[in-house]
Amino acid sequence: MAKQQGEQNGARPELLAADRNYHRDVAIVAVQPMAKRIFFALWLVLDVVLVGVFVYTILLQLVGGPLLTKRLVARTGSNTAVQHTTSVARAAQALHTTMPSVFALGDGAYDLYAEIENPNGDWYAEFTYSFDTSQGPSKRFQGFVLPNESRPLAAFRQAFSGRPGSVNLTIEDVVWHRVDHTKIGDVSSWLADHEGFVIENAQYGFDVSVGNTSIARSSFTLRNTTPYAYRNPSFFVIISRGSTVVGVNQVTAPGLLAGESRDISATWLSGAPTSGSIAVIPNINYFDETASMPPEGGPAVDIRDRLR
Fold first, then answer.
1. Averaged pLDDT, groups of 10, the chain, 308 residues long
2. Of the residues 39, 241, 255, 303, which has the maximum number of CB atoms within 10 A of its CB?
3. 156 shares its domain with 136
4. Do 83 and 159 have their domain in common?
């Protein structure tokens, strides 16, 4: 009796496991149709979404594509117009020149003089110039004009068979250079730092005698207050009466050192103005690296400290 009861107790776990497996299989079979319906419903929704995206893309290309293209074209045109306006605003404006003057020196020789103006603050120009006259053209010369500058141009002792008339200044082969603002921040300050020349004791008169002839001479003291030494700087000497230029000459000061003072004179062997006030104008292209000399050896010293 006890043995039979033990067998029944031992069989009971197996019956329970079988019962659990049975109920699980029944639940799986009962859930499968619902799971299939849910899967197919999600698949259908995904297909509908994909078809909707496809249709929307097609409609966007058909309807919005031309509008977008027109908008892009309009924007490109607007950018081009802005770039053109900016380029024009930044482009160099034309140089201006004055009517030339003619100074007779005697023996068929003449000085020709005019001024050129650069209205551009960020550009300087190099060019070739000459004077066209009724007696033929003068020689051709190399010239330059710095930013926002008005400077003399001259052709000295040009030989003509008669006094030249209908004189015109011709500017050719103009090459524009834009100031490099990565190296030069403020152009005006940079130029002022380079052209700090002081003219003292400027005089003009007929104080040189050669036999019984008095020769005109202009003299002045030139002080180079800049921290730069210049290799072979030249200077225009302009004689004026009021606002009218009546004579022009040119002098050089080879090897002009920083901080140096030098007495300079210029003579007129013929055709000198009888009187007038004197102005000295530097004729140095400061953007030309060959115009200045390298600093002298030894420890670096700011020459402006020696000038105080």
1. 51 72 68 72 76 75 67 62 48 94 95 98 97 97 97 97 96 96 94 95 88 87 96 96 95 96 91 92 96 67 47
2. 303
3. yes
4. no
Answer yes or no: is 112 within a domain.
yes
Do 73 and 153 fall into the same domain? no
Q: Coil, strand or helix: which one is 296?
A: coil
pTM assigned to the model: 0.68
168, 205: one domain:
no
Among 180, 207, 232, the domain boundary falls at: 180
- Tokens linked to 232: 């072979």
Domain end point (choices 91, 119, 135): 91
Cα–Cα distance measured from residue 177 to residue 188, given in angstroms and rounded to the nearest whole number: 16
Range of the domain at 302: 195-308
Q: How many domains does the chain have?
A: 3
- The per-residue pLDDT for 84 is 44
- Domain assignment of residue 190, yes or no: no
Contact status, residue 305 vs residue 141, Cβ threshold 8 Å? no
Q: DSSP states of 64-131 as a string?
A: IHHHHHHHHHHHHHHHHHHHHHHHHHHSPPPPEEPPPEEEEEETTEEEEEEEEEE--SSEEEEEEEEE
Q: 185 exposed, middle or buried (CB, 10 Å; 0-12, 13-18, 19+)?
A: exposed
Instruction: Measure the CA–CA gap between 216 and 300, rounded to whole angstroms.
Output: 43
Q: How many Å separate Cα 129 from the centre of its chain?
A: 24
The reply to whether 140 falls in a domain is yes
Q: What pLDDT does 297 receive?
A: 46
Q: Which of 114, 105, 109, 112 is nearest to 160 (CA)?
A: 109
